[in-house]
Each structure stands twice: as structure tokens, then as C-alpha cells.
Write a structure and sequence with these properties.
Layout: H1 2-10, H2 19-43, H3 51-65, E1 84-87, H4 108-113, E2 119-124, H5 130-144, E3 151-156, H6 166-178, H7 182-190, E4 194-199, H8 215-224, E5 227-228, E6 231-232, E7 235-240, H9 241-250, E8 258-262, H10 267-275, H11 278-282, H12 284-296, H13 301-305, H14 309-318, H15 334-352, H16 361-376, H17 397-420, H18 426-443, H19 468-476, H20 481-488, H21 490-500, H22 511-530, H23 535-538, H24 542-567, H25 572-589, H26 591-602, H27 611-621, E9 624-627, E10 630-633, H28 636-644
Parallel strand pairs: 2-7, 2-8, 3-4, 4-7
Antiparallel strand pairs: 1-8, 5-6, 9-10
Length: 665
Amino acid sequence: MLVLCLTYVLGFGEGAKSLTDRVAVVSAALGVLTLALALRRGTEAVPAEDRAALTGRLAQAVASAELLSRRVIGGDRIPVRVSFTFRTSSHARSATRPLVPNGTLDGLVADYGAVRPRRLVITGQPGAGKSVLARAFVAEFNRRRTEAEPVPVLLPLGDWGRQELFRDWVVRHLVRDYGITSAHAAQLMDSGLVLPVLDGLDELDEPGVPLPESRAQQVLDALTGYQSGLEPAPVVLTCRTDLYDVLETSGRPMLDAGRVEIDPVEAQEAVRFLAMRQDAIHREGEWRPVLDELRAHPQGVLARSLSTPWRLVAMATAYEQVNRPGELLGVRTEQEVTDRMFARFIPASVRAVDDEDRYSPEKVHTWLHHLALGLASQNGGANTLVLPELARSPGAWRSRMLYVVTVSFLTLVSLWAFLLNGTRGSAEWGVSLLVVAMAVLALLHLRPRGYRLIKRSDMWLPPWRSPLWSVASKMAFTGRNRWGVLVLAILPVMILWRSVAPEQLGGIGDWPLALAVLPMLTLYVGFLAGNTLDAAAIGPSGWPRGGVFTALALGWPAVVLLGLGLRAGLGLTDCLPLLAVFGVLYCAVSGDSAMYLCWLLVHFRRVPFRLSRFLDWCHAAGLIRITGGVYQFRHREFQEWLARHPAPLTRPTAPARAPATARTP
């Protein structure tokens, strides 16, 4: 806007002739600059708020995002009883333990309250229920917490880089996953009102990485120095048992922390859990041989294969209603049990949601395989699926090349229309400079951290028919939000007035144009209303809808101008460059969405085009879990199994490499 105004004033061609015109143009430029600075100050330099209000808002967002799914904890209202014991650390600086610990899932919050300092490490074997225990801890602590206590936030450790400070990393996740502003997130962290619950320390490094060079050791060093004043700051960490044992003996463990070890599920508990399922009651004859085997051989292959809550729940789901669990009686190895169980797991999960017509088990397996393979190709093997970052993954260079070609093509078409195929007046030069500037901003999105004119947390929108829209409308037009809506509504109202009002009142009286402008105003109101909601209440699938909404908000004026040009007698070839200009503008404003679209076009045969809708369906089916604003596979072992098997198994086969249970630090 400033470049166009200055170009018009200086007048490469006709320019502004009279002093009145020059003053008007300069005033308009200064007004736009003042409004931009005011909006920037309103979004970034946020004044400090009451701590209770900030923590309450964050606690509400966490409660919306970390709801425990019945399918994750076992379903059928019969959860697996998870127990744990406190372990003595091998070093002197360990936290004090409760005198009489509860040692159960329900009593973890009470046990944590007795730990001094409030630092806890949850360890267990792969699939022992560390993530479930962490989620249950977040939900229960958040329900019981007082205003003076910090808000627990579950954070996957997979994307913590070596050069990023721990505080900055937590602030980034609070902004991305829970939709709060960066200023408020920094205020909460600096006030010690955030309790980080860090999941997946054992998933940061590949086997064989030297301990001093590992990312896990870097995380522990950073957490040891993480303080609140002179005291160690509260933190909860989950890790695999064998890795943390090595870190305690040979490395540098997290000091001033207590440690709990999740107990294996005994055969007696497995029998109780399976016998209480509805399917075992309805099909007692099918399940009785399996239960008898567990009772008779509590240390047998089948009992060892079901010694973790994750495997026990997966087995119960895989043989629900249709499949015969008796096929597991003749197995000889735990890996054979895993292959048979996971081969049945996806079809059973698809059948459980009664939606086989939408997604067949074969398609679900194939699509999840490609997603798991993409995560495995990232450095160290990622475990979080962030939709805006898919095009920036190491193996997505084709998507980035398609994005560069698209931006370059739209830019060249625009420049050809305004410079090489017409007069070269001040307006043409001004628009050309603006197009080049937008193209540079669009290409900046290719950086590893991206570049955003609109913050990602401001683009999370609920489903179109969601009741959250009514909540958003009430929030947008009440309280302090209404003043921002009124100020920002000045420009759309002026456009509408210019279209409707008669010539005596400064308008043009064009009612068809007014009807064409009304949808743009509707998009404007919807965008403002959607931005008042927390991202955590919407979920990770709200980001693609925000990109579509931005495209509609930018595309509708282009359509209106195209219609006006055609009505004025211009040819279609004269109007198409206008669409190219708006395409460059969209890439500059919402480059993440454009890159994501390029990624979908490149992988359209490997994943569904409506990927977010599919992942939400997988979450309902129990195949995917949601942590804040990211997707994760139900379990790392399930993710690695899918990466090894490109197609559904008709019969068990040997794995291509060692399974997750045999991994060594």
C-alpha cells in the first residue's frame, strides 16, 4: 500500500497533479501505517494480565485438548489397572518420596504432590502405558489444581531442536497447540505457572548414538538447569526404562527428581481385563481357551506378549465381535503375536466405528503406512504429525519445488500483464513492485521455521456446522473484543456504503455490486469470530480450514473484480492476470496452506486429499491420538510396524528389522 501511494505521488507517468491529491494520498498511506502499527501492538505488545485469568484460560484449553478417549484407555468402561513403584536413584540428588505411595493410576497426582522438589520421571517398558499415565496425570491434575498451582501441559519431545532454549520451545508449543499469544505464553512460563509434562525422551535418538552426543542427554542437561528462582522448576518426564538406566549410570540424569517404574501387567490382571469385556461375556466359548492359557502359563509367550496395557488393549480391540482369539494359542514367538494382532487391529477399529463404506481397511492401512514411512524418514524418526510442517520434511523436496514453480509462474504472469503487455505508467510500475514484494514474502515460507504474516494460531477454525461458531460469535461481539471488531469493520462498511449509497451521498448506487460484496463481508465476520476461539478447542484439523477460509476471503474480491471487468467489456485474457496477482497474494499471506496443498497434490495417490478429515476419523477409530495441535500414532510400536508393512498381512511374516521391543539405547 505504501509503495503504491509513493509511486502515485512521485508520478512516473501522470501521477498526482494537484496538491490536494498529493495530501490525500499521503494521508491515506499514513492512516494505513498507523492502523498496521496499532494492530501489531494489539497482537504482540499485550499488557500483562491477571495470573488467575491466564492460567484459567490455559487450563480450559488443556482440558479441551487432552480429553481421554475411552478407546485409548481400553474402552467398554473397563480400563487396565496400571500400577507403579517408586525407585531409588543411583545418585544422591533425588527428590523425596511419599511415605505411603498409592502406586496406582488414580493416586498419581497425590503421590506427585508429596514429591519434593516436584520433579518426576515416569519409566517403563515399551507399551507399558507411560503416555496414558502422563495423559491421565494431566487430566486429573488439571481437574484438582488450585489457582496458585501451575497448569500441566502435555508436550511431545520430538521437535525440540538442539539450538532452541527450553523456555522458547515450551512457549512455541503453547502458541501452536493451545492458541494463546506468545506474550501470554512467555508470561506464564516466567511466572512458573506451566507444568511441562514431557513425553517421549526415548524416541529422540536412533540406537547406537553416543550418549554425550544424543538429544536425550541434551534434554536432561537443559531440564537440570530449568529453575524457578533458586529452586528446581516442576517438570514431569516419561522415558523407556533401559535408556534411563543407562543415563543414570553412564550419563547425566535429571537431578532433584523422583522416579516411578510402571509395573508389567500380570497374567491375572490380563485375565480380569479380558474376562470383563462385553465380547468375552457374549462369546465366552471363543475367549475361554485364551483365558485358560493365561491362567495356566503366566510366564508363557502369550502372557509376555500381553504384559503391557497397550498390547492388551490392542489385542482386545483386534478380536472384538468377529475374529477368533484362539488363533493366538499356537504362536511360538512374541513377534508372531504382534503380527497377527496388528493385522486384525485396523479392520477391527474400522468396524468399530461402523464406517467401512467411507474407508476400507485396506485403504486405511495403505494411507497410514505412507504417513508412518514419512515420519520414519525424518531425522531420528519423528513421532508427531504436524500438517503445516509436512511440506518442510526432508523427503518433501518435490512439494517445495512445486510451490516454487507455482509462485514463479504466478509472478511472471502478473509482471507480463503489467509491464510487457501494456503501457508502463506509474500504476503498472507500482503494482509490479508490489507483486515482486509479495513473491519474496511467499518464498520466505520455504525456510525451516517458515514465515507468517498471519500467525498460525489465528487460522484455526472449527467445522462449518460446529456449535463452536455460535460461541465464537458471542465472544467476538462482547467484552473487549467488540471494540476491535468495530474498528476493523470500518473498511468493509465503507466498501459496502460506496457500493449501495447514491451519488449524492458519495456512492455509486450499484446494487449488483453490493450483492457481490456481501459474501466478502460474511467471510470477514466469520474470520474474526473464528479467531476468538482457542486452537486446542478446535484441534489440529482446524488449520486446513483456516487456509481454505483465507483463500475464500482473498479469492472473492478477485472474482468480483473479474466479473466487473467482463461486464465492462474486457476480454478474459485481460482479466486473468488479476487472478494471478491474488494467487501471489495468497501465497504471501498463507504460504503454509499453499505448501500443504502442493504436498497433497504430490502425494495424492498415497494419502487421501482430505487428509485432516481422514486423521480425525482415525482418531475416532482409535488409530490416531491427538496431543495439543498435532497428530500421533496410537503407539510408537504400531507406527514402526506400519512402516515395515506396506500392505495388510494375509499371514504373519518376519519383520524386516528388529522390533521396537528389542531396541537398545
